Amino acid sequence: MILPTDQFPPTQKPSESVSGVTVRLAGDSGDGMQLLGTQLTNTSALSGNDVATFPDFPAEIRAPRGTRAGVSGFQVQFSAEEIFTPGDGLDALVCMNPAALITNISDLKKSGILIVNSDSFDAKDLKLAKLEVSPLEDGTTDPYRTIHVPMTKLTRGAVESTGLSTKFADRCKNFFAMGLVFWLFGRDVEPTLRFIDNKFGKKAPEVAEANRLALKAGWNYGETTEDFASTYQVSAAELPSGTYKNVMGNQALAWGLVAAAKLSEKELFLGSYPITPASDILHELSKHKNFGVRTFQAEDEIAAVCSAIGAAFGGSMAVTTSSGPGIALKGEGMGLALMLELPMIIIDVQRGGPSTGLPTKTEQSDLLMAMHGRNGESPLPVIAACSPADCFQAAIEAWQVATKYMVPVMILSDGYIANGAEPWRIPEVDSLPKIPVSHPSGQKLSGEPFLPYKRDENLARPWAIPGTEGLMHRVGGLEKEDGTGNVSYDPDNHQHMVETRARKIAMAADFIDELDVDGPENGTLVLSWGGTYGSCRTAVKTCQANGKSVAHAHLRWINPFPKNLGEILKRYDNVLIPELNTGQLRLLIRNEFMVDAKGFNKIKGKPFAVSELVEAIEAIA
């Protein structure tokens, strides 16, 4: 039974209206911070706020409890205005232990609200966090509005009537923290009560009751304690009208793939091997068998890409997903798909590298691998999603190019986009473009030999379905003779085929949109790509408000570049390219357009802060 919402009465304390709030929740992996953050995000989205999130996971699967390496965090900004980032400085920070506090407190604004579980700051907790003195006692927290809350003790008292053991009672303290945060920022508890009932109501009613009681206890603590003089209210944002759903990047990619398959009247096949942070695409697609989706969890990355090649050869919409280490293993298979000139999609959800690197941290360091990371001359079209919601559109565009030009296409995402969330306006189905796909019919050949590499106006070869009468042809990794598809070692033919494969990818520039510029046509241009979009856009808007002559352009298609990119670059005295790598797009831009582009680079496993971008822009603008 759902706890009546009237047991969470409106606050009697003063309420202050603010335009937006940035909150980070931090604790051990087992403290439920991701759940707390997800509920806060969903509730804020349902309240009509614009939201942006940044979940931050430990890199180790079983990092020791209480240690700095084991800290799990979730940052969310909810606003009454349109936003593009999860925020820079924190307005509020909730810390469940010393390790969470010491690794996150530097991001809290001076005089910001710091809520700590004071029950988790004993000598053992301090030792695990490698602290000799409690940060609650050595002046570390003095610049902040620190609220000491004995969450563990209060949670145990709140759920005592359920009969849960101490171990299980302590697991409810994230709901206590949730109740307090919801009270502080005027969030509606009803969606969370429904979540509790749906998740625990039938299979573990005592756990459901304990979580409800802990939620209520946190709410009541905020109302009754003298530590809080007021609450904060964030009104709904004025977003374009429509039906919205809060969506994460990997989820949107999966849905975009399903949509693309239906728009082209194809069955969708995913061949994948689990890897962080791409695995959720496999998990999400496996739920949609009703849409003709088939998922195959292969024994390794090579088997995954080869199974996708087989599915493409058989006439399905074929996809393989991975992150940097897996893409490296797929390289030979990707070259085979290019040689076969089959349409398929390769998704790289980038993470910190090299090697195993930083599995749960974000980076943009696979761009050059996407462009050149295969043997021989093997260019592929590359599109980079710019936000969680944009992943849906990126998947559709990638399949449009793949089928129009008969070529594998790479989609680049990253950990920041994949795990981040934002409101996505659900498109009208009728507004989505049909993706025409045709296959040659054996009955139309009239006895003429089938030419598997005979090209149309887009230099695309015919997509022949195996088993179609009269369409028998040779496939494989050896060089093909143009037209016949026979194995050929002729030097002139090889050069012709290499140039033809590159030329049809360059022709895709006729299909993709030209680049838009936001701002003046002179001065300084900030050129971004991938997940840096939100931070760069916000930073440029800030600089424009400060009177700087700064414009912003964002690249989604990296190969080919938009047709008007060169013309745009020539207009500006300064070109700044912020990247979460050592300057890979800058290298491509300087090589292609001979522009003295400057780089602003960060390789720390974290997205750009708007403030650091503003400083970099104003240094040259």
TrEMBL record:
Among Pfam families, the record links this protein to: POR (PF01558), POR_N (PF01855)
* CDD domains per the UniProt record, alphabetical: TPP_PYR_PFOR_IOR-alpha_like
**Which GO BP terms sit in this record?**
response to oxidative stress
**Where does the record place the Pyruvate flavodoxin/ferredoxin oxidoreductase pyrimidine binding domain?**
269-481
Q: Which SUPFAM superfamilies match?
A: Pyruvate-ferredoxin oxidoreductase, PFOR, domain III, Thiamin diphosphate-binding fold (THDP-binding), TK C-terminal domain-like
Which InterPro entries has this protein been placed in?
Answer: 2-oxoacid/accept_OxRdtase_asu, Pyruvate:ferred/Flavod_OxRd, Pyrv/ketoisovalerate_OxRed_cat, Pyrv_Fd/Flavodoxin_OxRdtase_N, Pyrv_flavodox_OxRed_cen, THDP-binding, Transketo_C/PFOR_II
Query: What are the UniProt keywords, alphabetically?
Result: Oxidoreductase
GO terms of molecular function: oxidoreductase activity, acting on the aldehyde or oxo group of donors
Q: Give start and end of each Pyruvate/ketoisovalerate oxidoreductase catalytic domain.
A: 30-218
What EC number(s) does the entry state? Answer: 1.2.-.-
Q: By what name is this protein known? A: 2-oxoglutarate oxidoreductase subunit KorA
* Annotated gene: korA
